[in-house]
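Full entry
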Amino acid sequence: MKKITTVTIASAVILMLMGCGETAHDPANLELSTTAISSPDSTSDEGDTTSQAESSDSSPADEGNTTSDDNSDEDTGEVNSELTEDQFVYKGKTVSILNDNDRILQNLGAFNPELTVNADLQSMYIYGENEITYNALKEEGVEYPYILDVETDSISTSRGIKVGNTKEEVTAAYGEAEETKSGDLSYSFDGFDIIFGFENGKVCTINYKNISTASKFDEWD
């Protein structure tokens, strides 16, 4: 059983944000608690939570549609026209960084209690064996969606890009983007960014970043 030792949350988010082992600046420098967060109530009514993006909640993919395994190209996922740019499907549920915190936790399902960590100003929920990391920032105990980090090739973006694709395949799907110093490609949308991290020329992480939360906590930068 893996034991979580005391580290800084800056280290964890650095690995999430930039480039699969690349070093990058992060706004937080907080000591993590080794206390696992209690599992969200799976019986909660979806109607009790309010989405930050109506288009995300209203998508028919939210009812449990999954991406097809019958892809024309084994190296790329299938484009899913039922998803908006901010959404992806995980275990039959549609997840969006623009949803509120409760909705995200509900749709992601049970997290890994051995790896999930909690701090006064930040929470980090881990799913599977680091398949997905959901990072939320806190203010007065309220959690705000910040980053969804995907590190598994079983999940595709709405345009069919997943871990393992090449940089050329990303630019073919999303267009040209200015590379960061760490070699990442960042694309801006209404209310969120998608950041593709690379290792050995292939996607190793896909970050969905909530711009509203980033702006709200910009004093951490």
